[in-house]
TrEMBL record:
SUPFAM superfamilies assigned to the protein according to its UniProt record, in alphabetical order: Homeodomain-like (SSF46689), Regulatory protein AraC (SSF51215)
Entry keyword set: DNA-binding, Transcription, Transcription regulation
Record bears the keyword Ribonucleoprotein: no
Protein's name according to its UniProt entry: AraC family transcriptional regulator
Organism, scientific name: Vreelandella neptunia
Gene3D superfamilies the record matches: Homeodomain-like (1.10.10.60)
PROSITE patterns the UniProt entry points to: HTH_ARAC_FAMILY_2
Length: 255
């Protein structure tokens, strides 16, 4: 029996107001949801998450085009978890929090994995909670704000690019395609993207392929050859070499 309820949802353009007897974590991979708790209102986006403690009244309304992970956490189950006390402290009060880029990337990967393998919702939920406790403990409060403000002003929407990439990991991806999504020239896009992320666009694509592959390696029974194909490698050999370079171990060892 699953300890948690984890869903990937599209929150509709309908205002909802309620309370519930479980904690709730809300993370978005794209789109916007307006949410308020006890008079404090903010937007839940790819860069802003929300923690709702049990029995706290809240209201929300989505934009109809969001992709949102909603994790319900029964309070009674926390005592049975290894890091249960740390997770409980996350919900000591209602809060919105900045989502670092690495946590956003993990959210994307886990949302995709949840949609492919719903039976793994409990394992995915635990991974998500452990990552969240780590990031909220270690990250500077301004980390998510230090994301290349110049580039953001130039319409480089990383969340939109991530969502597009996650739908095209098996395909050839060219810089020109990514630049067109942001209405920028390839040269300007390349410079802006590197300022924002610290890596080139194609290096970022490769990293995203491999991070998604790692989720499949660890949490699915798909063959390594099949996984290589799903994330855009021409054969298992090139996939294994890239995987070893990035993670410093082979996919078979990681599994």
């Amino acid at each position: 029996m699953a300890l948690f309820e984890l869903h990937s949802r599209n929150l509709a353009q309908e205002q909802v107001a309620h309370t519930h007897d479980f904690h709730q974590l809300i993370l978005a991979t794209c789109g916007v949801t307006e949410l308020s708790m006890e008079g404090q209102g903010e937007r839940v986006t790819a860069r802003r998450g929300c923690l709702i403690p049990s029995s706290r009244h809240h209201e929300y309304q989505g934009d109809g085009s969001n992709r949102t992970l909603v994790l319900d956490i029964p309070v009674a189950h926390l005592a049975s978890l290894e890091k249960g006390s740390e997770i409980e402290r996350l919900f000591d009060k209602p809060r919105f929090f900045s989502v670092p880029p690495a946590l956003n990337q993990l959210t994307h990967a886990l949302a995709n994995q949840l949609e492919q393998c719903p039976a793994l919702q409990n394992e995915i939920a635990i991974l998500l909670l452990r990552a969240l406790t780590m990031y909220l403990h270690d990250a500077s409060p301004t980390e998510a704000g230090q994301l290349g403000q110049h580039c953001i002003s130039e319409r480089l929407d990383l969340a939109r690019l991530d969502a597009w990439l996650d739908q095209h990991l098996a395909d050839e991806v060219r810089v020109e395609q990514l630049a067109a999504l942001c209405a920028l020239s390839p040269g300007h896009f390349h410079s802006c993207f590197r300022e924002l992320t610290g890596v080139t666009p194609l290096a970022y694509v490769q990293r995203r392929r491999l991070e998604h592959a790692r989720t499949l390696v660890r949490h699915s029974t798909l063959s390594l050859g099949h996984i290589a194909m799903l994330v855009g490698f021409r054969d298992q050999g090139s996939f294994s070499r890239a995987y070893r370079r990035y993670f410093e171990l082979s996919p078979s060892s990681d599994r």
